[in-house]
Write a structure and sequence with these properties.
The complex is a heterodimer of chains A (563) and B (364). Chain A has 563 residues and is an alpha/beta fold. Chain A has 22 helices and 20 strands. In chain A, 38% of the residues lie in helices and 25% in strands. Classes of the chains: A alpha/beta (563), B alpha+beta (364).
Chain lengths: 563, 364
């Protein structure tokens, strides 16, 4: 049975060097892939899951990385000692890869058909006409609607999900033995993700190939994989059968990974983090629905803090000088009320208008029509200087914690600057002590004051973003996909922090996310948006338990639930 | 007392220090700057504009030696030491190249130097012209390291003093171009729409005029002279800066930290100066280095055409113009030396620009 292994990786270590300092990224990993099997690799960012799979294809950046020891055996060939010329016949032909970003993996100046055709012509001896027929049949196989249209379409003319399908068609064009899928659905919406997963499963059965499926999402991997391997800090902490990993994880890290994600069924008071598992201090207190409805009753007895009435936002897309400008309603007739102390969840797929709506509330991008009443005043009609005063009250926490911090300002200065502009605190020393206080409150310490954003990890940066937002002592905070870019364990920490701050300071949140599980955990009321309209609006638990609209049902159905 | 160890600027500086050509160019530029500043203190001929002419020894090769008789001018001036060091001696001694001399009683008889085997005129001078009738301190051997130009002036001194023009045109023109370019570029890029359209029109129109033609037009309007050239070159170079700044600001404007700054209620001026400009400094610095080099070349070109610095002021371009026809007469060094100087200075700025571009690229 020894020869049945398709791919055998033994004691592989990989080092990266920067400025002469060599550091080992992958520590002595060994795993194998059987024919006709889907292996899932799970790990957080920086765990080395992508690097180890790039090594299989010989795609590591040559000058800065080095395989220090170990072998990768494929078909009795040691891949670590192949020349780049020999690799070319393996890449795409025997081992193929699909990447995370379908947008940047396709060449924008070539039609989709030609890009697949090119691969067929290079690796097979098909004639041009045969290759074209083969391409069309591939497109049919990956279930692209209207394969002929996609064949002659440029990448920007088709949707993200369709692009990923084209990528898959490219990858399976030469009937590879192994398909490596590196986070193939992370950039896609949940409903599209569901389709792609089903497609991959089906293709695997049809083509009898093996798939290495890499993802950070354990429940997603558990839906597709036969076997799972969990990686943490460049080492394999656990590998085994799906049910075994999921039902009875052995390693603490795997346990934490499974439990850090908000559960869809019960509502924990505090999400367990990795540290909690390490120290065995997880708090399993559950907020019961009675307690929840009690606090909600109090909240809804007040006057609304923010009232959004029939807000619309139109974008004009000019098609030409003489043709009539076409308009597109990103937000269409949206109304809701928000009460002090409440967390309003806003969920929807990309392009549904949730960010446009938040920008309209923040007055960053003014609404075309409708009114937004904040404490009884219509803020869409305020003057420029009044808007600037209002900014103090409504704050935002962004999705990308790195992009939202000015890379040239120290953390301390970045938090102090808005305080100075809005005249909070009388002197710089007073402000500084306030900032240090804030840093402690968001779980950072005083030594961070003079450091720059690039010295921090994603979770720490998001804490800085939160500290900056609450420095202005706002009433309302909009969290625009604030935890989407974070790893699951860090996500749990940030969600806990947000809830803690809410109880301490009495903030009101609008919590925007595409992740229904996270939104449901956080919010009291839930709004489901689709194509600029509100599909459904109700209590979060109600929506989840008995969705009324078909779209909501589809959305809930598409969430990977694991086993 | 803030700890700046991790700042991006600091990182860039560390990276720059590792670039051999960048560091070499930097020190070369510092050295040339030092030479330009103390040109009169260093130059063998410290008369104003290094304008001491000896027609009898014109266009001699580098390393040429001759006996020189110095006659004190005997005119008292009120020039102070500071001005003498930085702006040259207004009242230099009279210098006469001689081939031989003899003393007879109270009279010094000397033969003037003449090249090509001719015999110079014999002249006499009263020893009373010299203090204490001691002539020995006033007859010295003089070496012209770079030779002499077509008026018999010391080429080395002219080169040293000429570096001032090349150097200062770089600074002043780049300064003017930065002030106008950054203002126009940031307004166009940040506000967009009609303002952008108008500024882009101005930029495109300015750009479509050939640089030399525009400079000639501006010098004609403002008058001839090196100050006018400085301003004119600056006024032509801002377009490139403005275009770069505009493009950078348009992309930086989309960055989330700018949206964050708007959400925090900062005003536009603060956002542009504190949040956008520091982040787009890298391409501005790089284009400034390239502009520095371009300005030096344009000035040389203008001086060559006779529109730049006016005689007797020394300028490298003008020195090439004076001597380019000697190239075929077997004395190419007269034009080559200033040409090589221009090349070295421009090259240094280009290399420093390249090194800075690499160093400021934080991504790699």
């Amino acid at each position: 049975m020894q020869n049945s292994k398709l791919l055998d990786i033994k004691n592989l270590s990989i080092s990266f060097s920067s400025e002469g300092i060599e550091s080992e990224i992958i520590h002595n990993i060994s795993y194998e892939l059987q024919p006709n099997e889907i292996l899932g690799i799970v790990g957080e960012s920086g765990s080395g899951k992508s690097v180890s799979s790039l090594a299989i294809l010989g795609l590591l950046p040559k000058r800065i990385s080095k395989i220090t020891q170990g072998t990768i055996t494929f078909n009795q060939q040691n891949l670590t000692s192949l020349s780049s010329k020999q690799f070319q016949s393996i890449r795409g032909n025997e081992i193929a890869m699909i990447f995370q970003e379908p947008m940047s993996s396709l060449n924008p100046s070539m039609t989709c058909g030609n890009q697949v055709l090119e691969i067929l012509l290079q690796h097979t001896s098909l004639s041009k006409a045969e290759a074209k027929a083969e391409t069309l049949s591939l497109f049919e196989k990956v279930k692209l609607p209207l394969p002929k249209r996609v064949y002659s379409a440029y990448p920007h003319e088709i949707s993200g999900g369709q692009k990923q399908r084209v990528m898959i068609a490219m990858a399976i064009a030469c009937k590879p033995k192994i398909l490596i899928a590196d986070e193939p659905t992370t950039a896609l919406d949940v409903t599209v993700q569901k389709d792609i997963i089903t497609l991959l499963k089906q293709l695997q059965l049809e083509e009898q190939m093996s798939i290495i499926f890499i993802s950070h999402d354990l429940s997603l991997v558990s839906e597709i994989a036969d076997r799972i391997m969990v990686m943490y800090k460049g080492a394999i902490v656990e590998q085994g059968d799906v049910t075994q990993i999921f039902k009875s994880p052995k390693h603490i890290y795997t346990k934490a990974l499974i439990n850090s994600r908000p559960s869809m069924d019960s509502r924990l008071k505090q999400l367990p983090t990795i540290d909690d598992f390490m120290n065995n201090t997880s708090n399993s207190e559950i907020i019961t629905s009675e307690k929840r409805s009690q606090t909600q009753k109090q909240i809804y007895a007040q006057k609304p803090l923010l009232e959004v009435i029939n807000v619309e936002k139109e974008f004009i897309s000019k098609s030409g000088w003489f043709s009539k400008p076409q308009t597109f309603k990103a937000v269409n007739n949206v109304s809701f009320k928000l009460y002090k102390g409440e967390t309003l969840g806003l969920v929807g797929e990309s392009g549904c208008g949730k960010s446009t709506l938040s920008n309209a509330i923040l007055l960053l991008n003014k609404a075309t029509s409708g009114s937004i009443m904040y404490q009884g005043v219509d803020i869409t009609k305020l003057s420029k200087s009044d808007i600037r005063k209002l900014r103090k009250d409504i704050q935002i926490i962004f999705q990308d914690p790195y992009a939202s911090l000015n890379p040239r300002l120290t953390v301390g200065k970045a938090i102090m600057e808005p305080m100075k502009v809005h005249n909070i605190g009388t002197s710089d020393t007073e402000r500084k002590s306030k900032v240090l206080d804030l840093l402690l409150k968001v779980g950072l310490d005083e030594s961070y004051f003079n450091r720059y954003p690039h010295e921090f990890s994603g979770g720490q940066r998001q804490r800085i973003g939160i500290a900056r937002a609450i420095a202005l002592e706002p009433q309302l905070i909009i969290c625009d996909e604030s935890v989407s870019a974070l790893d699951i364990s860090v996500q749990a920490q940030v969600l806990n922090l947000l809830n803690e701050l809410k109880t301490n300071f009495g903030f009101t949140y609008i919590f925007i996310s595409h992740d229904l599980a996270v939104v449901k955990y956080m919010s009291d009321q839930l709004i489901v948006m689709n194509k600029g309209r509100i599909e459904e609006q109700d209590d979060a638990d109600n929506i989840y338990n008995n969705p009324k609209q078909p779209y909501t049902k589809k959305l809930i159905h598409a969430i990977p639930k694991g086993l | 007392m803030s700890n700046t160890k991790g700042s991006l600027t600091q990182l860039a500086l560390q990276k720059f220090k590792k670039n051999f050509w960048g560091v070499l160019s930097f020190w070369l530029i510092v050295a040339i700057g030092f030479l330009a500043l103390f040109a009169y203190a260093i130059a063998p001929d410290n008369s104003q504009n290094a304008n001491q002419m000896h027609l009898s020894i014109h266009s001699q090769r580098p390393g040429f030696e001759v006996q020189m008789l110095y006659l004190p001018s005997g005119i008292e001036t009120q020039q102070n030491g500071f001005s003498r060091v930085f702006f040259g001696n207004a009242n230099a001694d009279i210098e006469i190249p001689i081939s031989s001399y003899s003393i007879d009683k109270e009279v010094l008889t000397y033969t003037e130097y003449a090249s090509d085997g001719l015999i110079g005129v014999e002249k006499t001078i009263d020893l009373n012209r010299f203090p204490n009738k001691d002539h020995s301190a006033f007859i010295k051997k003089k070496t012209f390291l770079f030779g002499t130009d077509k008026y018999g002036r010391d080429l080395l001194s002219r080169i040293l003093i000429g570096s001032r023009i090349s150097f200062s045109i770089g600074f002043i023109a780049v300064f003017i171009s930065l002030v106008i370019g950054i203002c126009m570029g940031s307004i166009a890029g940040y506000y967009g729409g009609k303002v952008d359209a108008i500024i882009m029109w101005i930029i495109n129109v300015t750009w479509s005029i050939p640089t030399l033609l525009l400079v000639i037009a501006i010098t004609l309007a403002l008058g001839k002279g090196f100050w006018q050239v400085f301003i004119a070159v600056g006024l032509t170079m801002w377009v490139e800066v403005a275009r770069v700044v505009r493009g950078q600001i348009i992309s930086a404007k989309e960055m989330q930290y700018v949206t964050a700054a708007r959400a925090l209620g900062f005003n536009d001026y603060r956002i542009i100066t504190k949040h956008i400009l520091p982040n787009i400094m890298a391409p501005i610095i790089v284009i400034s280095a390239a502009n520095f080099a371009a300005a030096i070349l344009i000035e040389s070109g203008l001086s060559f055409l006779g529109i730049g610095a006016q005689p007797p002021m020394a300028s490298w371009g003008a020195m090439i113009k004076d001597h380019y026809n000697y190239i075929i007469l077997g004395k190419p060094y007269l034009a080559l030396i200033p040409g090589v100087c221009i090349m070295i200075l421009v090259m240094a700025f280009m290399l420093i620009g390249n090194a800075l571009r690499d160093a400021l690229d934080v991504k790699s």
